[in-house]
Design brief:
The complex is a heterodimer of chains A (109) and B (116). Chain A is mainly beta and 109 residues long. Chain A is built from no helices and eleven strands. Chain B is built from no helices and eleven strands. Classes of the chains: A mainly beta (109), B mainly beta (116).
């Protein structure tokens, strides 16, 4: 069975401080990993995926197969980063996503 | 581009009543998903369609839930009869899809159901 764990329900940091949202997964094969974000009163949207290896809005995430982790990082948090962040896994093809419970990130001024 | 459109946005019904949700995916997207999101949880897959075929409905509680995607475009999700525990947000998503695809899933705004 596949599972995604986000250990922090709430993470509060000050503006300008580094941010790391943790994500660990359980899957027997080679999964695709994603980070989705939901800003207040907006729909869930893709932030980044591991196969793209890109930085979006200053965020990066590296897939560590040895530790089965896909942590999301940003060196300097901004107030507009406040949102719900969900880590998600897809086993393959067009399969549905398995989501973690989400982390509510609050950036304090 | 309106994106994935869902209606209604909010619905309040009494328990034991039926309810239906509607989803219009992004034009050209073959794959359509319905997810259930309980308060404080991440979305959980209910059913996945490839065109008009339900290819994964293993998580759909078939005693009271049903779904259809006629003509492989719009989709409806129905609950009959609704129970108090069905109160949640129902999300629809679509992607360009197809087996072996790596397309991004685009989500609708969701329908917030409250059963009283």
């Amino acid at each position: 069975a596949q599972r995604v764990t986000q250990p922090e329900k709430l993470l509060s940091v000050f503006k300008g401080a580094p941010v790391e949202l943790k994500c660990n997964y359980s899957y027997s094969g080679s999964p695709e990993l994603f980070w989705y974000v939901q800003y207040s009163r907006q729909r869930l949207q893709l932030l980044l995926r591991h196969i793209s290896r890109e930085s979006i809005k200053g965020f990066t995430a590296d897939l560590n197969k040895g530790e089965t982790s896909f942590h999301l990082k940003k060196p300097f948090a901004q107030e507009e980063d406040s949102a719900m962040y969900y880590c998600a896994l897809r086993g393959g093809g067009a399969d549905g996503l398995t989501f973690g419970k989400g982390t509510h990130l609050i950036i304090q001024p | 581009e309106a994106g994935v459109v869902q209606s209604p946005r909010y619905k309040i019904i009494e328990k034991k009543q039926p309810v239906a949700f509607w989803c219009n995916p992004i034009s050209g997207h073959n794959t359509l998903y319905w997810y259930l999101q309980n308060l404080g949880q991440g979305p959980e897959l209910l059913i996945r369609y490839e065109n008009e075929e339900a290819v994964d409905d293993s998580q759909l509680p078939k005693d009271r839930f049903s779904a259809e995607r006629l003509k492989g475009v719009d989709s409806t999700l129905k609950i009959q009869p609704a129970e108090l525990g069905d109160s949640a947000v129902y999300l629809c998503a679509s992607s360009p899809g197809g087996a072996g695809a790596r397309g991004e899933a685009f989500f609708g705004q969701g329908t917030r159901l409250t059963v009283v």
